[in-house]
Amino acid sequence: MTESSDMNEAGADETGANEGRALADREADREAVWARLLQEVSTLPGLPGVYRYFDTQGNVLYVGKARDLKKRVSSYFHKHHGGTRIGHMVSRIARMETTVVRSEAEALLLENNLIKTLNPRFNILFRDDKSYPYLKIASHAFPRLAYYRGAVDRKHRYFGPYPNAWAVKETIQLLQKVFLLRTCEDSVYNHRTRPCLLHQIKRCSAPCVDLIDREAYAADVARAERFLLGETDAVLADLQAQMMAYAEQMAYEKAAEVRNQISALSRVLHQQTVDTVMDKDVDVLAVKVLGGRACVNLAMVRGGRHLGDRAHFPVHVQDHVVEPDEADADAPQPTADALLHDTEVRVLEAFLAQHYLGSIPPDMLILSHPVDDALIEALELQSGRKVNVVLQPREQRRSWLDMAIKGAELALARLLSEEGSQQARTRALVDALDLAPEVEAADAAQLPEAAGAGDPLARLRIECFDISHTAGEATQASCVVYEQHKMQSAQYRRYNIADITPGDDYAAMKQVLERRYGTAGLKAARLPDIVLVDGGKGQVAMAREVFERLGLPISVIVGVEKGEGRKVGLEELVFADGRPKLQLAPSSAALMLVAQIRDEAHRFAITGMRAKRASVRTGGSKLEDIPGVGPKRRAKLLQRFGGVRGVTAASVDDLASVEGISRELAEEIYRALR
Predict the structure, then answer these.
(1) Residue closest to 357 by CA, chosen among 343, 368, 371
(2) CA–CA separation, 673 vs 80, rounded Å?
(3) Average pLDDT of the residues in 234-245
(4) Which residue has the higher pLDDT, 258 or 267?
(5) Cα distance between residue 627 and residue 608, in whole Å
(6) Which value, to the nearest 10 degrees, does the dihedral of the CA atoms of residues 484, 485, 488, 493 take?
(7) 566: which DSSP letter?
(8) Who contacts 121 (Cβ-Cβ below 8 Å, separation ≥6)?
(9) Phi and psi at residue 132, to the nearest 5°
(10) Is the pLDDT at 532 greater than 80, yes or no?
């Protein structure tokens, strides 16, 4: 045996010994942590409270509530959970915190607040970036109807919330037809000298030019409010009495106008097939769980009118920890149907807590599954009023619930179908680029929490870059991210490009890649599997130069080159590592995915460039200095008022009428621009 081979064997032995000692140290540390946790559990009181579990990095794993803290928390540590998800979570617990409260209802309130604040890894989470819209009747001598989304101001009247923007706008159109209320902005209203088109088509009574007096208009507003509150019979009776009064006074033209209002309102009520005179404000909730995904469908009834529904899809359902049963461990194991029902109940309870705690629920909730009485008690506690819960509705309420259940089933089936299609696209791209071995070998521990441990394709990460400008002005680069079979909008980034020759796309691409993947810029746990650049050989060569200088693998760089005639579907993929161009079939699922990501990068770059250009051309920097006015709100203000001068001249009421601008922010903008 040679001297070098002896040294190699000695080195291998030493490496193995070091790995063994490290493993032993980790096991010893884990035993010490476990002993400390058991000691803490033994001292817990048998009182209501909330518990939190943390891992070694201080990340929150789970937040739970308990009627009996000692019994609930002990069940995690004194039972064998095997390789289940709960076992995986328990194995990661490094420390815990508990808070004792007076009742289970208080525990629910605290649990919900902590879930929203801490975003724990193993809790069911509902994320909805969009607030529900309202119909607003703005305070004014001649109040106007308006679509509204945001914080409410007691100065105005609000009706809702509505499930979507369409429901609000449809209701506004209905009120225009029946009650002829104005919808124009105050800035338009104050400068009218003759009736607008809405008056000509009998959608407005034209208070702007005094074609209706204040008292008559106020009566129409009052009737509209009563209609929105569900008092339709009273409104019809009032209109009929007014029509008869005009007839007795031989004011036949006015009587005919009221008759037309009655006819319009009657048609509306006849068309509303799910109308009821009993219930006014009701929320109907149905939950379905299938294929590891869940859907809670929320249907809204306001003023006795069914306004539609909205489907909500929680995350972490596949990682949901079913809390240990506090009953005897020798109890019979539940059936599959029972487990599914239990999961659906827990999903519904999570939605009720996260959706209603902190807001005012309607008078009645119709639910597809029974929920914990303590949760309803908590809703009543925080809202200060009785909340009626109906579990087995009849007649009209039954039809509402059936509609909500069917809607949940259809929405969930559509989601699973879309996800299956998107997974097929991911698989097709991985196969086309021969990435399967690299993707499947990726370290799952480095992936985001929602990445599926059993789905290697979910680990594929693609980052795509695009450059946008107008003749060299307001150059911006965009970076969009595709991972877990979908676009990750929260990880999108825009980069302002400076110190380059205007219109030099190559220099812009070089700058954004250096900033993204340089030492200070690469924040991701791992380099993307694919870096897409929107361009051909030139852009790919620039990307290669940057990656070689940074010491990064060039094999991940792929350019999307437009095909002959720049026709969609004829794009070719260009590689930085010398592989020949790849032209995929127009019907290829892989090409569809590339086009989807490329188009999203282009859209994101274009919107950023336009906002930046508008800021430069209109002096938007004055608005940029105001806290709370970001790019989106600034763009809406500039669009509404035609520039900074228009914003400066606007009143507080006019500013507050812009979507996303609260009364407080409007006052702040008004003061800052004076």
Answers:
(1) 371
(2) 65
(3) 80
(4) 258
(5) 20
(6) 100
(7) G
(8) 59, 60, 61, 62, 89, 316, 319, 449
(9) -75, 140
(10) yes
SS (H, E, C) 311-356: EECCECCCCCCCCCCCCCCCCCCCCHHHHHHHHHHHHHHHHHHHHH
- Specify the 3-state DSSP secondary structure of 390: strand
Percentage with pLDDT > 70 across the chain: 80
**String of DSSP letters for 180-223:** ----S-HHHHTT-SS--HHHHTTS---GGGTSS-HHHHHHHHHH
Give the tens place of pLDDT for each residue, 116-133. 778 888 888 876 545 678
- Has this prediction a pTM greater than 0.70? no
Cα separations (Å) of 657 from 75, 132, 149? 54, 17, 10
User: Domain 619-672 is classified in which CATH homologous superfamily?
Assistant: 5' to 3' exonuclease, C-terminal subdomain (1.10.150.20)
Per-residue pLDDT for 325 more than 50? no
Give the chain's length.
674
**CB-based contacts of 122, cutoff 8 Å, min separation 6:** 61, 62, 85, 89, 316, 319, 320, 321
Q: How many Å apart are CA 140 and CA 22, to the nearest integer?
A: 74
Contact 142, 210 (CB under 8 A): no
End-to-end CA separation in angstroms for the chain? 89
In the chain, ranges of CATH 3.30.420.340 domains: 440-611
Identify which of 50, 53, 52, 51 has the alpha carbon closest to the alpha carbon of residue 104. Answer: 50
pLDDT at 664 (0 to 100)? 80
Alpha carbon distance 494, 475 (integer Å): 11
For residue 560, which of 586, 588, 579, 539 has the smallest C-alpha distance? 539
Q: Where in the chain is the domain with CATH 1.10.150.20?
A: 619-672
Position 533 scores a pLDDT of 92
Assigned token pair, 112: 């919900």
pLDDT in tens, 271-300: 444 344 455 788 999 999 887 788 999 988
- CA-to-CA separations, 406 to 35, 128, 293, 409, in angstroms, rounded: 50, 22, 16, 5
Strand arrangement of the beta sheet that strand 305-312 belongs to: 305-312, 293-302, 282-290, 364-367, 388-390
Cα gap 84→456, rounded to integer Å: 19
Q: Is the domain 44-118 a CATH 3.40.50.720 member?
A: no
Pairwise CA distance, residues 1 & 184, whole Å: 94
Question: Which CATH architecture group holds 282-314+336-349+359-415?
Answer: 2-Layer Sandwich (3.30)
161: preceding bond cis by omega (within 30 degrees): yes
Neighbours of 552 (CB within 10 A): 19
Q: Under CATH, to which class is 440-611 assigned? A: alpha beta
Q: What is the mean pLDDT of the chain?
A: 79
